[in-house]
Amino acid sequence: MDYSKYILWTVLCIAFTSTHAQTIEKTLSKQEALKIALENNYGIQISNNNKKIAENNKSLLNTGYLPTLTGNAGAVYNLDNTEATFSNGNTTSLEGAESNRYNASVSLNYTLFDGLGRRYNYKQLKEQYNLSELQARETIENTVLQLFSVYYNVAKLSEDVAVLQQNLKISQDRLERVNYQFDYGQNTKLAVLNAEVDVNNDSINLLNTAQLLANSKRDLYVVLGKNELPNFNVDTLVTFNLQPTRDELYKKVSSNNVTLQQLEKNILISDFQLKSNKSGYLPSIGLTGTYGWNKNNNNAAAFVATSTNTGLSGGINLSWNIFNGGRNRTQVQNAKINLNNQQLQKKQIELQVSRDFNNAWEDYQTKLFVLQTQKKNVQTNTNNFNRTEERFKLGQITSIEFRQAQLNLINAINAKNGAKYEAKLAELQLLQLSGDLLNSTY
Questions:
Q1: Cα 29 to Cα 151: distance, rounded to the nearest angstrom
Q2: Could you say which DSSP state residue 96 is in?
Q3: Are 342 and 270 in contact (CB under 8 A)?
Q4: CA angle 355, 356, 357 (to 5 degrees)
Q5: Closest CA to 23 of 236, 234, 229, 237
Q6: Could you tell me whether strands 233-234 and 284-297 are parallel, antiparallel, or unpaired per DSSP bridges?
Q7: Which of 46, 251, 370, 380 has its CA 20 to 30 A from that of 132?
């Protein structure tokens, strides 16, 4: 590539990054991003709707404790050909004899006792609602982790772009310097070509990273539930807020971990289901009451031409399913097995959560150590680059040695930035396992 093409390429690169920077209008803070996600994220909205369904299901209207009231009405019209013989021997023959009947009634039914089935069904519905709350909380926690995973990726790429812009500026200054030196016979054409190659490579890296940044911003808007041009930048400040010791944090796992809490609710629900199935062995007792009105308009062959009845009726009934082919016994046995499965699953998940917590704690401590090491590494490489740059300007080292110091510094800065966000995400994962994620600051 000749020098004019390089100039065009660099101008296009700078124009792209400058235009991109000009479209940025505001800083999307972590708190604002969290607020938008909690309001707009579709997964959270679906989870909240499921919680509303569970709340409706546990209403008294869905328990069977209330009586039922049924209204009935009807009318019958008859057109008959009738031959009738009365007890005194008289006979009559009718053709097209009309008759009609009307009725209306209101019936009240109430179950006094159903073997305690509805009691345990009601308790199941309440625990199902409590379970739906925990499921909604789990969805929120997972969304928060997803949000900050993408948010911090945007932050890292934003810092990468800034570093690569500075890196390109260093390479451009170096190219300008070696061109002056070449013009005055103090350097070779090879040094110029090497500087041009490095500038081209740095320009390409900057463009690629800027594109990754744009893609990552769109990913963030998907989590936020927004469909618009992502013109924003993010807060790159990271603070670590984990205060409790390992033992203090681990104590919170058994009582606060959302997965373990859901398993406890499932055990309760299975226990109530078992008791509900056992209620099939007991009788049920109910009350019935009816108020009715009946009117009959008979044909001429009837003893009574018209009759009207109104009145109340009431009763009590007992029903006992003594044997239904063994279905009750099968349901009870299966409910016992399901309850045992839930208890076994809880023990298994407790082991897994304990393992995950220990892994997350060690991972967090390792990443904090790596972060501190990378900070020191950046300082060392910064000092090395500054000295190398001074010697390069004095012509005491080659451009290759200068380029290596430059790359070492860029790589150290990128590694430090990556370690910073990885450590923060490790902290958030640890807080989720302990059940403190939604109570912490970000």
A1: 10
A2: E
A3: yes
A4: 90
A5: 229
A6: unpaired
A7: 251
Tokens coding 360: 């997350």
Please state the φ and ψ torsions of residue 425, each to the nearest 5 degrees: -65, -35
Kindly list the distances between the CA atom of residue 105 and the CA atoms of 71, 297, 432, in Å, as whole numbers in the listed order: 6, 18, 60
Do residues 236 and 155 make contact, with C-beta atoms less than 8 angstroms apart? yes
Count the alpha carbons within 13 Å of 71 in the hemisphere toward its beta carbon. Answer: 1
DSSP state of 239: -
- Locus of tokens 């009759």: 307
Residue-level pLDDT, tens digit, the chain, 442 residues: 454 455 445 545 554 554 444 444 689 999 999 999 999 999 999 999 999 999 999 998 898 899 999 999 999 988 877 777 767 777 777 787 788 999 999 999 999 999 889 999 999 999 999 999 999 999 999 999 999 999 999 999 999 999 999 999 999 998 998 888 888 877 778 888 989 999 999 999 999 999 999 999 999 999 999 988 888 999 999 999 888 789 999 999 989 999 999 999 999 999 999 999 999 999 999 999 999 999 888 877 666 778 889 989 999 999 998 888 889 999 999 999 999 999 999 999 999 999 999 999 999 999 999 999 999 999 999 999 999 999 988 888 888 899 999 999 999 999 999 999 999 999 999 999 999 999 887 7
Which among 143, 145, 152, 165 has a CA at the least distance from the CA of 216? 152
Provide the token pair at 61: 């209207």
SS3 readout for 281-348: HCCEEEEEEEEEEEEEECCCCCCCCEEEEEEEEEEEEEECCCCCCCHHHHHHHHHHHHHHHHHHHHHH
Work out the widest C-alpha separation in the chain, in whole angstroms: 149
Contact 165, 299 (CB under 8 A): no
* Residue 73: how many other CB atoms lie within 10 Å: 10
Question: What is the chain's length?
Answer: 442
Alpha-carbon distance values, 123 to 59, 87, 268, 280, 442 (Å): 11, 65, 9, 17, 38
In angstroms, the first-to-last Cα distance of the chain is 48
3-state helix, strand, coil in the chain (%, to 5): 65, 15, 15
Contact 377, 416 (CB under 8 A): yes
DSSP-derived secondary structure letter, 103? E
Find, among 386, 387, 385, the residue nearest to 409 by Cα: 385
> Cβ distance 152 to 176 under 8 Å?
no
